[in-house]
Design a protein that fits this description.
Layout lengths: L18 H10 L11 E5 L7 H7 L4 E6 L2 H14 L4 E5 L12 E6 L8 H14 E12 L5 H13 L6 H19 L5 H15 L2 H8 L9 H10 L2 E6 L12 H8 L4 H12 L3 E8 L17 E3 L16 E4 L5 E4 L2 H13 L4 E2 H15 L12 H9 L4 E3 L17 H8 L4 E3 L5 E3 L2 H9 L6 H14 L11 H21 L5
Parallel strand pairs: 1-2, 1-4, 2-3, 4-5
Antiparallel strand pairs: 5-7, 6-7, 8-11, 8-12, 9-10, 13-14
Length: about 525
Amino acid sequence: MNHYDRLPYESNPFSDTHPRNLSMLGKLFRLPVAAPEQCRVLELGCASGGNLIPMAWHLPQSEFVGIDLEAAQVAEGQRLISELGLGNITLAQGDIMELGDELGQFDYIIAHGVFSWVPEAVRQGMFALYRRLLKPSGIGYISYNTRPGWHVRGMVREMLLYHTRGIDDPLECLNRAHDFIEMYAQTLKGQPGSLSKHLLLELESLKRAHPSYLYHEYLEANNQPLLASEFIEQAQAHGLKYLCECQLEGMFPSHLGPLAEAFLDGIEEGARHEQYLDFFNHRTFRQSLLLPSEAEPDYDIDLGRMEEWSCAANLAPPRKLELRKAGAQTFSTLDGKEVPVELPLVRAMLAILYQHYPSALPLSELAEMGREQVQQAHGKKRAIIDDNWHGEFFNLYANCLLHLTERPLHYNNTPTARPRLTALARAWVEHGAENIPTIWHQPLNTDSFSLQVLHSLDGEHDREQLLAKLLADVQSGKLELPGVSRDQDKLQLQLAANLERLLRLFAQNGLLE
């Protein structure tokens, strides 16, 4: 039984599915793909449009079609589309098995969180649909759970299915599952075995997961992980060709050690090669790209072509940037992940990108700007600059730590005197969403304080007025903040610092006009 009407799946943007990302991967393999600014996109399992609507907002000359089985979610998305006045997107209720050629052909077809979670007949129907509706130069995206890596999660799923057997109400089922997860996690904390530790990690992650993820991933009737080789072979049987993974880092064996690398070098057949990569990487989830079988990708990646493209990166540099000597220096992602960067030139380029984020700068010009900064760091002494930045930049791209685009993109990253949300961000906030889509199609997490700030950004209030409103909300108890000072002056300083930090964050993520 399907319970998406009672417990709808969280509908968020997935950056990997964005046509800008898909087209860039196509360009990397020298495919004649459609420009993201002028393309047709079909999403199967679009839910309420949380992934597709931001694409349509930012790419007004492209066309977007979303199909979902659940009429209630489609209706919610249609209301949001109407509020935003978007004329380039259509959401419709429909069954994948009944879709025909009336939809026309598409440059990009995406299905995130669908393939593993539907019956076998529907999976085969999806392959057939991709073959029919993809343009000759089109790219298809399908995500799915993979064996054998998913087996540990499958153990948890079997336990939860058994514990909740006979319960029809999805909310009661979810509550019973949470009770079991909490109890089982406590029992595992005292067990020293490696499997117990692995299971405990899975359970702890489920405690933090969105309820819809827990229910639809672990408690729904259908969840069938596949071997990567099975997926590729089934796609081939339908006239489709495997291109690559959306996240390229898992396709390169260099991190696996010399034995695994030598073993994989001896396997030329694509499906077997990908399968052994999954074995060595313990992969649990794939985001595979497919092409019509007649497409001819060039797998010999020419890193020199990066000179033709542009780049955006939000890696925070260290406080003291070292530009005179090589050796790893740590940059940081927004969520605190440490990223070692070897070459001084690359460090200089990343620091410039950080200052201009979310804009994408031409890499050829960026490299020249970086060389000037490295030279300045050496003073009058002539610097010998290691100019081989391409490999390190490609590695960062493969690990999803920067964005590549075919063309430069320029955005303002400085908040105005009276900050105002974009209509897209305002609609998300007013609909009670906890994650706001950024200009790079990523979900920006919010808390009670940031939501209160977002609600106030109507373009009518300056910093002083915004700060006064926040101060009044805290003092009245309307807004509770842990760890704030009771001293009036210190409280005001804390709020002012947090307000400025958030305004900068919102501007850097394209949420402000």
